[in-house]
Specification:
about 25% strand; single chain; six-stranded mixed beta sheet; about 260 residues; 12 strands; four-stranded antiparallel beta sheet
Length: about 260
């Protein structure tokens, strides 16, 4: 029997008097790859921040690995859930290796030195994400795509088995987008990590995930298999427009293609 990694029941959250999430209910099984899509302002980032307790004070319940979110200390939660926020352009004064190693903080005690196990976890994460060749370089010297892979490496080194990623491929060129998607798929497949990622790219959501959650105005508008999402009636109810589709040349899965401008 599979274990439920994240369980949300009737959860609502507001910024002051403005509702951001409205009675969200969702169960994510351990090892699942879930994409979260929806229009701007739908509540996607807010949902991730509530799961990792950056935002607090909502109503309803959130359970992580079967226990109430509020029952964990911040350090205990960090050992279970890692979060990669949207890229914001900030440049940190650390090397790749230093930055990834700092992610081991949930497993360290005050005033203790880094253990062999911590160093090994950092090396494994660096190798898994393919950033070995520049592990000694400062983050400021890397491209946006390279830095994004380092942030994912740090999330892996953290040792959490639930990864939350907020638009991990924003502003990246096609090659680095593909690298990130393949890396996340490999992490999900090989380590069994639960991956929940926010994206604006419907094709990405459909191709690289086992299930898709769509939010609209803070409410669940769709939750199901990616193939079920690629339906114009469903997509129009979420995004307010209809789309053109074409079959994927290899898998035959329907993909959205841009319309020509007359």
């Amino acid at each position: 029997m599979s274990q439920t990694a994240v369980e949300i029941k009737n959860y609502s959250f507001s910024f002051g008097k403005k509702p951001a999430l409205k009675a969200i209910s969702l169960a994510v099984e351990a090892g699942e790859a879930l994409a979260v899509v929806g229009p701007n302002g739908a509540g996607k980032t807010t949902l991730l921040k509530c799961l990792v307790r950056i935002l607090t004070g909502g109503s309803g319940s959130i359970r992580i690995n079967g226990a109430d979110l509020g029952s964990y200390s911040q350090k205990e939660l960090a050992a279970l859930v890692s979060y990669v926020p949207q890229a914001d352009g900030r440049l940190l004064p650390f090397t790749v290796e230093e930055f990834v190693l700092m992610a081991r903080y949930p497993h360290l005690s005050p005033f203790t030195s880094v253990s062999d196990a911590d160093a090994a976890a950092a090396r494994d994460a660096i190798k898994l994400t393919g950033v070995e060749e520049f592990s000694g370089r400062l983050l400021a010297t890397l491209s946006g795509g390279e830095r994004q892979k380092v942030f994912i490496a740090a999330a892996i080194a953290q040792g959490a088995n639930i990864l939350l990623l907020d638009e991990p491929t924003t502003f990246l060129d096609p090659k680095h987008q593909d690298d990130i998607h393949r890396t996340l798929s490999r992490i999900n497949r090989e380590s069994g990590a639960t991956v929940i990622s926010v994206t604006h790219d419907i094709n990405t959501a459909a191709l690289f995930n086992s299930r898709v959650l769509a939010l609209k105005a803070g409410e669940v508008a769709f939750c199901g298999h990616p193939s079920e999402l690629m339906d114009n009636d469903i997509l129009e109810s979420i995004f307010g427009k209809r789309f053109l589709f074409t079959p994927h040349p290899v898998s035959g899965k329907p993909l959205i293609v841009p319309e020509e401008v007359e």
